[in-house]
């Protein structure tokens, strides 16, 4: 593939960024992305060729699920050799989940896959959609010595490019909707677009991208809270099809050390079901054994999520369970960075 200008595929899955306002009724409606240049003529100034592709039925991101992740991965796989980069337009509510999932599903990625969206629709007077979209395309088209500058799944929002599997949505109203509290931004957009060279992921040389489409969804996320009832938890964990559990714990990985709780989690692990410990704090890391209330978790074989986000932990568990690894291999793979998702 030797293009005179970078070729970028813009993929619309749904979300606010793809809406325009009917000024007569005030209602939001989807617009035809083939008419993108009519709405954002500034895109003509970018030094790249842009094609567009939309989901047949664009979806609100609250309805996002792994079946749609697979559809998205398939689109990228099908067009991978034809384009230099991809920009995915997605609703912001579940963007971190989808973008994290794609980072695991696309192994040995050597091209940018940049997720973006907006808090206001493209036709709104004060929209953030234009800047997010234009800069995302510019990032996807940026090359250095004949290769893409970014070779991983990123998420761009409000002047910052983040590693996708490090992000969390932190605000439903501000334009600065996302944060990456445990990893620095990959790039910042101001007067100049400045890349953080040391933060960028470098793929293994001469490897061909592999697309993994089997994601195991029979998993349970349990957020710890004071007063969690023994009977309620027992009921949740008794589900016969259960394949994995993520515990969202206090602080640096702490839980109640009452005997009933430890015995219940130990029994789950003895059934070959992996249990992963992630912190419910926005930033920071799990450090099991640091406090007495996490010593027992370490002893019974709970897996440390370290500084992984909840969104990335869910995606990584679905991905690893889909690979059908043995229990010990699952633990080993979860506790090491596969796509830069943990430190």
Description:
By secondary structure, the chain is α/β, with parallel strands linked by helices. The protein folds into two domains: 7-211, L-asparaginase, N-terminal domain (Rossmann fold, 3-Layer(aba) Sandwich), CATH 3.40.50.1170; 219-334, Rossmann fold (3-Layer(aba) Sandwich). 27% of the residues lie in helices and 21% in strands. The chain has helices spanning 36-39, 66-79, 95-105, 129-141, 230-237, 259-270, 292-300, 310-322, 327-334, and strands spanning 7-12, 19-21, 28-30, 49-54, 85-89, 106-107, 113-116, 143-144, 147-148, 153-157, 160-163, 168-169, 178-179, 187-189, 193-195, 210-211, 219-223, 244-249, 275-279, 303-304. The strands form six sheets. Strands 4-1-5-7-10-11-14-15 form an eight-stranded mixed sheet, with helices on both faces. It has a four-stranded parallel sheet with strand order 17-18-19-20. It is globular and about 65 Å long. The protein starts with 6 loop residues before the first strand and ends in a 9-residue tail after the last helix.
List key phrases describing it.
globular; alpha/beta; 9 helices; 4-stranded parallel beta sheet; 343 residues; 8-stranded mixed beta sheet; 27% helix; Rossmann fold; single chain
- What is the correct CATH architecture of the largest domain? 3-Layer(aba) Sandwich
Biggest sheet details: 8 strands, mixed
Query: Looking across the biggest beta sheet, what order are the strands in?
Result: 4-1-5-7-10-11-14-15
What shape does the CA trace take?
Answer: globular
Number of domains: 2
Named CATH topology of the largest domain: Rossmann fold
Total of helices: 9
Radius of gyration: 21 Å
CATH C-level label of the largest domain:
Alpha Beta
């Amino acid at each position: 593939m030797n293009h005179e200008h970078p070729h970028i595929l813009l993929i619309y899955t749904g979300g606010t960024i793809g809406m325009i306002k009917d000024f007569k009724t005030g209602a939001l409606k989807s617009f035809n992305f083939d008419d993108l240049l009519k709405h954002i003529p500034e895109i003509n100034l970018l030094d790249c060729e842009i094609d567009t592709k939309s989901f047949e039925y664009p979806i609100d991101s609250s309805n996002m699920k792994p079946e749609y992740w697979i559809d998205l991965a398939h689109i990228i796989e099908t067009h991978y050799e034809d384009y230099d980069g991809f920009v995915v337009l997605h609703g912001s509510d579940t963007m971190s989940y989808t973008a994290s999932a794609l980072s695991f599903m696309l192994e040995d990625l050597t091209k940018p896959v940049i997720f973006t969206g907006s808090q206001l629709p493209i036709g709104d007077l004060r929209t953030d959609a234009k800047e997010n979209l234009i800069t995302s395309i510019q990032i996807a088209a940026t090359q250095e010595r004949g290769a893409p500058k970014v070779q991983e799944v990123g998420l761009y929002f409000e002047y910052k490019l983040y590693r996708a599997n490090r992000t969390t949505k932190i605000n439903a109203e501000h334009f600065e909707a996302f944060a990456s509290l445990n990893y620095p931004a990959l790039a910042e957009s101001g007067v100049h677009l400045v890349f953080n060279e040391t933060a960028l992921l470098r793929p293994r040389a001469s490897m061909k991208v592999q697309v993994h489409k089997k994601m195991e969804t029979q998993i349970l996320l349990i957020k710890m809270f004071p007063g969690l009832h023994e009977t309620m938890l027992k009921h949740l964990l008794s589900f016969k099809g259960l394949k994995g559990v993520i515990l969202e714990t206090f602080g640096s990985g702490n839980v109640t050390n009452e005997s009933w709780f430890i015995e219940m989690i130990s029994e789950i692990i003895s059934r070959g079901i992996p249990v992963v410990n992630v912190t419910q704090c926005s930033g920071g890391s799990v450090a099991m054994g640091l406090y007495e209330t996490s010593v027992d978790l370490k002893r019974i074989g709970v897996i440390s999520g370290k500084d992984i986000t909840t969104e990335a932990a869910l995606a990584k568990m679905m991905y690893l369970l889909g690979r059908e690894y043995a229990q010990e291999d699952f633990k080993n793979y979860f506790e090491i960075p596969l796509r830069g998702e943990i430190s």
